[in-house]
Amino acid sequence: VGADDEAYELVKPVFKQWASMVVRAGEPGAGTRMKLARNMLTCIGFAAACEAQKLAEAAGIDLQKLGRVVRHSDAQSGGPGAIMA
Prior knowledge:
mainly alpha
């Protein structure tokens, strides 16, 4: 949420009615910038997954098996989210 302290305290209980996590990102507009950064991580992850799949396919790797390995290793390591501060 991008808001000053007073506005954040006012809206926080309302947001908690549907959101499991409510974070004050900073001043007005900061929440939008945080969401943009989060969306960028998601889109980059999708693009990387597509490229990795094409590489694996070109190398003759079974994509079903690759999918199982990726899902297992991400469950163990936390995937890219594990490196975020």
